[in-house]
Write a structure and sequence with these properties.
- The chain has 550 residues and is an alpha+beta fold.
- 55% of the residues lie in helices and 10% in strands.
- The chain has 18 helices and ten strands.
- Helix 2 packs antiparallel against helix 5 and helix 6 crosses helix 15.
- The termini are far apart.
């Protein structure tokens, strides 16, 4: 008997040891899986994929047939459906499959009282686990929605486990709801165990931190994007004459960059941009003129040569009228003297003829100045001499002789091209230096750390004669060259400048070709731009129909 008893005891002990060993191995495996899931969750930065992973792992841990994932609304007044899956029905919604349009689950009733009849709401409000053996027998809860789902699909909900997802600060950011745990051997629906509660709670905690991190990253990314859009809008809004320039340069830069990315042959066949790199080029396009925030409006908005706070052409026109009146009065005085001296009628007529010639010349001179003021045509030496000749006229104001044109007006009217003097052009050009300084001072994240270099090179030239740094071809990246081409092409074809019409496509191409010959623009890039008809693609979207001449 003793031997028999010993055998029984040994058998029992061996059985217990095996059970303990199995339990320990299972727990080790369980912990290892949790660690692996935790690592996977922390490395996933795409919210939709993260949500799918969380629900899938929760169902796998518990062998649950169905599951629903909710996230807390920003105002913490409701739970929104973000992921739903029922394996036996083949139902999968939310996550990467698209947003669920079901109405939110309110945490509070219209009366303002907590909505504790809804199990997910109770879980979120009280931050506690709810484990229900059979939803059809549970008391104190409203399962009308669950029962309606069962009725419409033929499904039968039974066991349910609802877990709060709390972040590192202990705040509930969501709820994980699992339905119908299945026996792995028989497939029978069984209750969720205490171990299931602990496992899913551990998973939910890791998931909540991961969701918070992704949400924080997304919020920061959206904040940066909103800031960039706001700055770009402010730059365009600073001047009514350059409105939309920043947006169009970014748009054209992306057209070029994406075409390079898609190239299967030629010089760019080995260049493959990641989505982050393309976004970096887009951001550089939006930020390339950020320095214009510091440029005075009177320079940015200078639509004519004589414009300051107002266009001084009318002040000059008034002087012309005064001068004409002086000539008429002088002629009248001379006529009176001739009459007093009994002069011949022909002498008086000659005075009138001389007066008309002078008045006609003054009208012609004023018309010339009006045309020169626009700044649309190149000012030759002869035209500048004519400005100086007109400036030699004088008129009397309060018995003082003053020139018809002052020194500043002569300087501005003598501008050979455009409407800016050298000092004003220097102020405009300084925006590139200021853009560099501003962008280099910003702590861009790693994925955008080349924005200052790309944006800062949009006025540089391959021959080293650009600004603000005078970089050469070896120092200019392809991305900076893309932005430079986009900036110049947009400026040439822009139809919103007050001193010029947008050039036709053929004219813009001709100027671009001259810049290539002078080694200011990248010849390979420009050739690619034309070969792929990117100039036409942009023109059709952004230019006036009268500019589309090819």
């Amino acid at each position: 008997m003793n031997i028999s008893n010993n055998k029984n005891i040994n058998t029992l002990l061996n059985s217990v040891l095996k059970d303990i060993q199995y339990f320990v191995e299972k727990q080790d495996s369980h912990i290892e899986n949790l660690n692996k899931i935790g690592a996977a969750l922390s490395s996933e930065n795409h919210l939709e994929s993260l949500l799918e992973m969380i629900l899938a792992e929760a169902q796998k841990f518990t062998n649950a047939d169905g599951g629903t994932l909710y996230l807390m609304s920003n105002d913490e007044q409701s739970l929104s459906f973000v992921m739903v899956e029922t394996k036996s029905l083949g139902i999968r919604m939310g996550g990467n499959s698209g947003k669920i349009t079901w109405p939110n689950l309110n945490l509070y009733k219209e009366s303002g009282l907590p909505n504790r009849e809804m199990v997910a709401a109770l879980c979120a409000l009280d931050k506690k686990i709810v484990n229900i053996e059979d939803v059809y027998k549970a008391q104190g809860f409203n399962f009308d929605g669950t029962k309606s789902f069962d009725e419409s699909t033929g499904f039968h909900s039974k066991s349910m486990l609802v877990i709060p997802m709390k972040n590192h600060e202990g705040e509930v950011i969501g709820v994980c709801q699992l339905i119908n745990r299945q026996d792995q051997q028989t497939g029978e629906v069984i209750s969720f165990s205490e171990q299931d509660e602990n496992s899913v709670l551990s998973l939910a905690s890791q998931a909540a931190v991961a969701i918070s991190n992704v949400s924080l990253i997304n919020d920061l990314r959206e904040l940066l994007e909103s800031f960039i859009r706001t700055i770009a809008h402010a730059i365009d809004a600073k001047s009514p004459y350059t409105g939309g320039h920043v947006q169009k340069v970014a748009q054209l830069s992306m057209i070029i960059a994406e075409a390079i990315n898609d190239a299967n042959d030629g010089v760019y066949k080995d260049i493959n941009y990641t989505p982050d790199q393309l976004n970096e080029i887009r951001i550089a396009g939006l930020m390339h003129d950020v320095g214009k925030i510091t440029t005075p409006e009177y320079v940015v908005d200078k639509s004519t040569k004589l414009e300051t706070i107002y266009d001084r052409i009318e002040t000059i026109a008034t002087r012309f009228e005064v001068l004409k009146k002086e000539l008429e009065l002088e002629t009248q005085d001379k006529k009176i003297q001739l009459l007093q001296n009994s002069a011949a009628a022909t002498e008086i007529d000659n005075l009138d003829k001389v007066l008309q010639i002078k008045l006609k010349q003054l009208d012609a001179d004023l018309d010339f100045i009006r045309e020169a003021n626009i700044g649309g045509e190149f000012m030759s030496d002869d035209k500048i001499k004519r400005i100086e000749q007109i400036a030699s006229y004088s008129l009397s104001i309060k018995h003082k002789k003053i020139p018809l044109l002052n020194e500043d007006e002569i300087e501005n009217l003598s501008i050979r091209k455009g409407t800016l003097t050298e000092s004003e052009r220097s102020i405009i050009n300084s925006h590139a230096k200021m853009s560099n300084e501003m962008l280099e001072a910003l702590p861009f994240p790693k994925k955008l750390n080349r924005v200052p270099e790309i944006a800062g090179g949009h006025h540089e030239k391959l021959n080293g004669k650009g600004y603000p740094k005078g970089l050469t071809a070896n120092e200019l990246s392809l991305e900076a060259r893309i932005l430079a081409l986009a900036d110049i092409f947009e400026a040439l074809t822009a139809s919103d400048r007050p001193y010029k019409d947008g050039k036709k496509l053929s004219e813009a191409m001709r100027i671009i070709d001259f810049m290539v010959k002078d080694y200011e623009l990248d010849p390979n890039l420009v050739q690619f731009f034309y070969n792929k008809n990117l100039h036409v693609e942009y023109a059709v979207k952004s230019l006036l129909s009268k500019q589309l001449d090819i």
